[in-house]
Amino acid sequence: MADLYHTKQRFYLGAYKSIVESPLPDESSSEYQAVLTYKARSYLALNDPKSALKLLPEGTENAGLKAVGSLARYLASEGSGDTEAALEELRDLAVEIEGDDVEGTEEDKALVRVLAATAFARAGEVEEALETLGSETEDLEAVAVIVQIYLSINRPDLAKKQFDRSKNWAEDDLLLQLIESNIGLVTGKDNYSNTYSFYTEQIGNPTLVSPHLLTARGITRILRGDVQESKSDLEESLAQQPDDVETQAAYVVAAELGALKRPEADELWSKFASQHPTHPMVVDLNGKSDLFDQCAANFPLPPAASTVSA
Amino acid sequence: MSVMLTKFESKSNRVKGLAFHPTQPLLAASLHNGSVQLWNYRMGVLVDRFEEHEGPVRAVAIHPTRALLATGGDDYKIKVWDIRPQNRRCLFTLHGHLDYVRTVQFHHEMPWILSASDDQTIRIWNSTSRQCIAVLTGHSHYVMSAQFHPKEDLIVSASMDQTVRVWDISGLRKGSPNTGGPGSSNQSGPGSFETFDSFSTVKHVLEGHDRGVNYAMFHPTLPLIISAADDRAIKIWRMSETKAWEVDSCRGHFNNVSSALFHPKHELIVSCGEDKTVRVWDLAKRSSIQTFRREHDRFWVLASHPNLNLFAAGHDNGLIVFKLERERPAFSVHQDTLYYVRDKYVRQYDFNTGADIGLLSVRKFGSPYVPPRTLSYNPAERAVILTISSDNGLYELTNLPQQAQGELKDSSVDGKKGNGQSAIFVARNRFAVLNKTSQLIEVRDLSNTVVKSIKAPVQTNEIFYGGTACLILSSPTSVVLYDIQQQKTIAEINSPPVKYAVWSNDSSLVALMSKHTIIITNKNFSQHSIIHETIRIKSGAWDDAGVFIYSTLNHIKYCLAQGDHGVICTLDNPVYLTRIKGKTVHCLDRSARPRTITFDPTEYRFKLALLKNNYEEMLYIIKTSTLLGQSIIAYLQQKGFPEIALHFVQDTNTRFELAIECGNLDVAMETARTINRPECWNRLAQQALKQGNHKVVEKAYQQTKSFDKLSFLYLATGSTDKLSKMQKIADARGDPMSRFHNALYAGDVASRIAVLRDVGLHPLAYLTAKTNGLDDVAAEILEAAGLTEDDIDDVPMYETSTIKPPPVITTSTDLLWPSLSTGESFFDRALANGQLEGGAEPAYTNGDAAGSALDAWAKEEEEGEELNPDEEGWELDGDAGEFQPAEEEDDTLEELGAGATPGPEETELWARNSGLAVDHVAAGSFENAMQLLNRQFGIVNFELLKPLFLSIYRASHTYVTTLASLPPLKLHVRRSPADAPPNRLRPVAVKTLQAIRSELSEGYRFVSGNKLVDAATVFRSVLKSLLLVVLSSDDEAALWRETVTAAREYLLGVSIELERRRLVEEEPDNVQRSLELAAYFTQCELQPPHLQIALRSAINAFTKANNHAHAARFAKRLLELKPDPKIAAMAQQRIQAGNRNPRNAIEILYDEFTPFEICAASYTPIYKGSPAVHCPYTDAAYLPQYKGTLDPLLQLTEIGASASGLPAAW
């Protein structure tokens, strides 16, 4: 029991590496499949769909595992641009689970919805994602995804509503706190205090070590305007996982905000931009750079003054 | 009598009994299936159902004054019900009849219930004692009905034995022998009927019907009886004290007559029968006037309303409620006079004096039973045209006498008549008549001669005055504005059939009323708004302010031109509005009597003022009226005026909410005291904290006993005395944690130690004492613990602590921090002053004949329209008004789930909330940012700013992954994270003035270190950064300007010096120029240490070139700067050398005695008074020929371009 519990906890708090590194429980164990699912999903979270696929038993009929496989294929195909096949698989699965003759528990069905919605959201199909999850769901993970989607389309009000609704039926779960914290990240209510204390609390949690939490708190601190503190969080996180893209990205922002000197910040950025050309921040910045050139072109340059030296 | 105006119909099982409620629009219907329904016929809703009878219910009655209902059924029972909704129930059941109960009736004053039954008896029950007090026997067959006389102690009954009987029950009243008489009634079997006979006697037996009689009733005032029988006849009987006889019969029904009634007001009889007709008869002539036929429904029962012109008939499949004639009086308003028709007399009513006189009789115009339908008044000729719907539509044109004469003139004397359904004056000597069948509109002159005949362009049912030479034509689907002279349609608006048109007093607007819609349009129909009403619209009139007041069946409402409407008051009965004057509604009631209703126009005046932004008026209303209620508050809140709403609210909870919302701490405080709940105090504390009002925060914390927060607040505000009080309180509370806290805040080491000792943390206490140098105390603790120094030598020793609470620099206990601007509104200010600016009541003298004021209103309105013709677009507004509710629904529907529309990006908010270029950069709206920079500082070359732009944008956004595999959330770094409201969100200040100034200092260091190239780079960078810095106050702005100037001077100086060095290197012969440059360098505004360097370098150069006089001048300036002795000595030397040899070997362009600026392009002086152009950003000077070129100093701006400068965006 404890194993699954911890796996779940580590999963939600982003300690994917530690899940991936842990061995699976005995195959006869009742938790085997659940832990396996989380492990596969952790691979996916680490953007390693190949390992996830390897892990999955072949020819499984379990809806949840099938969905994990489909999502893995989706992620694997993301680079190539042909994602439709995997999306279709997920669509079919989402329809299938409405029927009765599907192998899998209610949790598996909920998982299918969550994973399908995840893929839809990644593909930018917000409406489809929300539809798949349904607004009346009583699955906390689904709520988390819904909330995240609302937040991503700048509707924290709806996110809050969905969260408030889930409080009526959900236990005070770690995931529930995470959802609240995520909402706080966007709304910035009470100076991000909710989010900040959530991460501080979880960092203090002795049962798990997740540098992701440090990164998240570092980002929260950036938002709170505590740049120096954020720097120390991020550096600590980087010490544990030097390759973590997210932490690096956050570190870039902290550097820009004065954690590092200008040349260092610039250097950090150019390094980051060249190493992770697909990171949304880099993509966004490249777009902005083009935009800048476009806008700047609207202003014709006057002739240069013929100065003494010229 | 033209139509039976059906008001309401219901479908149900066969209706056997009907009864009107005397005052409310309620109708009870008893059904053949055993149910009794209570309908609200005005709203058309079923209000209640009473279902306890078994089998058909034939008898039903409503008490004339109390909320009681009596029913009698085929289950032999009579039931009495309480019909008040809150305690509706069967009060009691009267048992006694031995067969079907046919009718029941309440007595108008005694507590008696009368019932007729198939058991051949009529019984009277005492509803108080709930006992039968009389049994009238004599009929030899079913008794089909029994009715009390409306005044006398008589009963009339009808029976299948073909007789109608009149009973005298006066004995019952006098003797009232056995009200509650024991035994006799209850225990009397059928055999003991005789017991009661002494109290009631048959007075008359009316014989004449050849079949069973179904119904009989007394005339309300005359000694007449009417009866309806299966012999298809209705008979009228007259009676005297001693006898009764048949007067006449009305024949015409060709099947059993179920019921016949006297009309309560007119000399009419209404009957219905199984031949599926309802018929109306003339009582005097006994002739049939009108027949209404139904296809399939046999009529079983009729009921008349006790007071109103309303009837109900029950048939096989339900019931109908109907009127026999139009109640709407024909009227027309001219200025302050109302011309109207009552009882077929044209009358004149003066609104001001209330004088009401008859002018003209129109009794002979059309059918005597039908009132005229419309009246059109011609003030020029003092003539009226009336129309009437009888005889297929007639009109009559008559002159009104100048004043009332003794004998009123009858219109038939000189009236000019004709056929037509609609007739109105269209000019002083012309009127138009519509003939509906031929669809011809004839224009006639006053002698009734046709001067023009027009074919109606659309199917026209009614015509109205349409303004000069125009008509408004009402067709089934539209309303048309038609020009008579040009004979063409000017405009057309789609609309349900328009029934009435009312022009505003200034003839600029017209309200077109249909059954359920009102269209308000201007005089050429180019703009209009539509209001929909679910309840039938009856009439309307214009307020002098241009507000349309209208009445529905049960409300008087208002409607603003843009479509906003609301209820003014409720009505018991419909009225017909004629004129609105100030707070008075003039109207005609259903019997065409003038009435006035006083109402409170505040609400719509207020809304009107709000619409027109007329704050004075609003304020006046706020201060003088008692305008209250949730609706207006919600309205204000919705329109974004919480602070105004605050002034209306008395409910403390709402007041509190509003006060918090608009940041009015005083009110919030006051209300929080009244409410006195912790949540309130907490919210107050939060808001006060936001506004920096720590005194309120303190009070709120005290109320909630938030000791921790209080202590911290005191620490933050530096009130040490209060902190020590907190210590005492903590002592008293016996809370060691709190004591410790406070001791820590107060820097009270002794207390801290004491706390630690008290709670048994001796080691901590010891260490605290030790590290604070209190060795005695430490020793004491040690002793108390029974230890010696030796026992603890393994405990490491610490340095004496230097940590202290920070010293109080500014005691802010009594200071309030710069508080958040609460946006003091016009209202707050004015209400605080206790008076209006200007002080006087605004001229709102609606209808009080104050012409000038009205003109002002009208003018204001016109101006308003001219100002923004587009926004005033009625159509849009009208639609908005109409669809708003629907949108709201959408909102709630949308709620959650798919289809959620994306909200505004935070970056959009940033851009919206700020006029600073840097904020737009952070928001990523580079285009705006560039335009701002261009406008403010004349920047044209943005390429150089690109790294800055991108760096700022980069710094303002961060990404975090919160859920596995989902794309990360993009988060936006805000300037002050505590500011949550979206209208205050702004991006983080990436560049601060402080940081840039420290960068500037770095530049200074480079100058001192003679790294001039580096220095120039730094100064350029500083100047670029300064373009994108966040400023928040005037002081900062001043500092900013100072920084810009300093950086510019240094950059200029450094550039000159670099140029000089280049020159020395590359053109060693051009000594003159290099000397000039050296001299100009010293003219830059540098700080003394740097100026010293410039001067020393100049001295060296000039000395070398043997320009000793100049060198001496520089040395003098150097001395003024008080350099250190060594340099001073050197300077002295130079001065002496200059004195000895006051000559200059090389002439240079340098006049140090005339102030000059240095052209930053050519490095030549621009002496005071000579023309110069400037850089729009740094204000660097240039020779005029450089105007329009890129500035060489920074390469950013266009020299001489105009710029608005720094925006005051804080």
UniProtKB/TrEMBL annotation, chain A:
One of its GO terms (molecular function) is structural molecule activity. It is found in: Cytoplasmic vesicle, COPI-coated vesicle membrane; Golgi apparatus membrane. InterPro entries: Coatomer_esu (IPR006822), TPR-like_helical_dom_sf (IPR011990). One of its GO terms (biological process) is retrograde vesicle-mediated transport, Golgi to endoplasmic reticulum. It comes from the Eukaryota. The keyword Protein transport applies. Pfam families: Coatomer_E (PF04733). SUPFAM superfamilies: TPR-like. Keywords: Cytoplasm, Cytoplasmic vesicle, ER-Golgi transport, Golgi apparatus, Membrane, Protein transport, Transport. GO terms for cellular component: COPI vesicle coat; Golgi membrane. It is a peripheral membrane protein. Belongs to the COPE family. The coatomer is a cytosolic protein complex that binds to dilysine motifs and reversibly associates with Golgi non-clathrin-coated vesicles, which further mediate biosynthetic protein transport from the ER, via the Golgi up to the trans Golgi network. The coatomer complex is required for budding from Golgi membranes, and is essential for the retrograde Golgi-to-ER transport of dilysine-tagged proteins. This is Coatomer subunit epsilon.
TrEMBL record, chain B:
Residues 859-1206 form the Coatomer alpha subunit C-terminal domain. Residues 860-894 have a biased composition (Acidic residues). InterPro entries: Beta-prop_COPA/B_2nd, Coatomer_alpha_WD-assoc_reg, Coatomer_asu, Coatomer_asu_C, Coatomer_complex_subunit, Haem_d1_sf, TPR_COPA_B, WD40/YVTN_repeat-like_dom_sf. Residues 344-589 form the COPA/B second beta-propeller domain. It is found in: Cytoplasm; Golgi apparatus membrane; Cytoplasmic vesicle, COPI-coated vesicle membrane. The coatomer is a cytosolic protein complex that binds to dilysine motifs and reversibly associates with Golgi non-clathrin-coated vesicles, which further mediate biosynthetic protein transport from the ER, via the Golgi up to the trans Golgi network. It is a peripheral membrane protein. It comes from Panaeolus cyanescens. CDD domains: Coatomer_WDAD_alpha, WD40. This is Coatomer subunit alpha. SUPFAM superfamilies: C-terminal (heme d1) domain of cytochrome cd1-nitrite reductase, NHL repeat, WD40 repeat-like. One of its GO terms (biological process) is intracellular protein transport. Oligomeric complex that consists of at least the alpha, beta, beta', gamma, delta, epsilon and zeta subunits. Residues 630-775 form the COPA/B TPR domain. Keywords: Cytoplasm, Cytoplasmic vesicle, ER-Golgi transport, Golgi apparatus, Membrane, Protein transport, Repeat, Transport, WD repeat. One of its GO terms (molecular function) is structural molecule activity. One of its GO terms (cellular component) is Golgi membrane. WD repeats lie at residues 8-49, 50-84, 94-135, 136-170, 206-247, 250-291. Residues 171-190, 858-902 are annotated as: Disordered.
